[in-house]
Amino acid sequence: MIDNQYFETIRCEDFEVFNLTYHKKRVANTICKNLSLEEYITPPNKQLLRCKIIYTQDEIIDIQYYPYIKKDIKSLKLIYDNDINYRYKSTNRTQIDNLLTKKDDCDDIIIIKNGLVTDTSIANIAVLYNDTWITPKTPLLYGTTRDRYIQDGILKEYDISVDMLKNSTKVALLNAMIGFNILDDIKII
Asked: 52 to each of 7, 67, 176, how far by Cα in Å?
């Protein structure tokens, strides 16, 4: 059943696998068991690759490698949805895909739930507000890069209102492939 399939996106480059400890932690939190992901990941070349591991409660279903091409994000549209739930990194992204259809000409969306900033469709978000990098206290998905930057003391968790977002001096996206990517000249609609 597709609702019970999950995935991890893991950065691989020059035959190195990045931040595996954080991915293993999220897998363990998702299915309540440890998987030795390192046994399954064998990057096929030195390129920057997106390794996608699809798994269920019981097994690894598939491992795919794709050359990674970073999306150029110049505009984000605010989309409001109080019912969205994406607690686990599920292969069923229907709710997010439905919200993406409302992005118009923007490059991506920022999902607002119960009046608070959560995530974009592809990444966690952080904003520089009052000279402090903050990230939503309640994102849609607890990302591995987000977790790493919080543990390193670079990010603080806050409830971020739309006003705070609009009054921030910088915006960054965070995920396993792009790390902490500060967006220059971002337009938020």
From this structure: 7, 11, 11
